[in-house]
Amino acid sequence: MNNEVRARREERGLSQAELAERVDVTRQTINSIERGRYDPSLALAFGLADFFDCRIEELFDPDGDDRT
Predict the structure, then answer these.
(1) DSSP-assigned letter for residue 17
(2) CATH 1.10.260.40: does it fit domain 2-54?
(3) Rounded Cα gap, residues 16 and 57, in angstroms
(4) pLDDT range class, residue 64, cuts 50, 70, 90
């Protein structure tokens, strides 16, 4: 699944650790999401969308699979 988490995080000038703290997950979770190695739970996807003040569909593209 492709996502825009890294781009949005960087737009706000946040580190992975800062974003993780704000959405109550580990930095490793944010790293894994950004690298496309982990698909967030629905609750986390909603939490990230709420944090970035956007819709889930704006952050995550379920049709885009960049995993090999």
Answers:
(1) H
(2) yes
(3) 21
(4) low
Q: How crowded is residue 53: how many other Cβ atoms within 10 Å of its Cβ?
A: 8
**Residue given tokens 């819709």 in the structure block:** 55
Measured at the alpha carbon of residue 7, what is the angle toward residues 3 and 14, in degrees to the nearest 5?
120
Do 61 and 1 meet the contact criterion of CB atoms below 8 Å apart? yes
pLDDT of residue 65: 56
The predicted pLDDT at position 67 comes to 46
Tokens 């690298």 belong to 35
Look at the block and give the residue holding tokens 């706000």: 12
Residue 26 CB neighbour total at 10 angstroms: 12
How far is Cα 53 from Cα 32, in angstroms, rounded to an integer? Answer: 21
Q: What is the mean pLDDT of residues 19-36?
A: 97
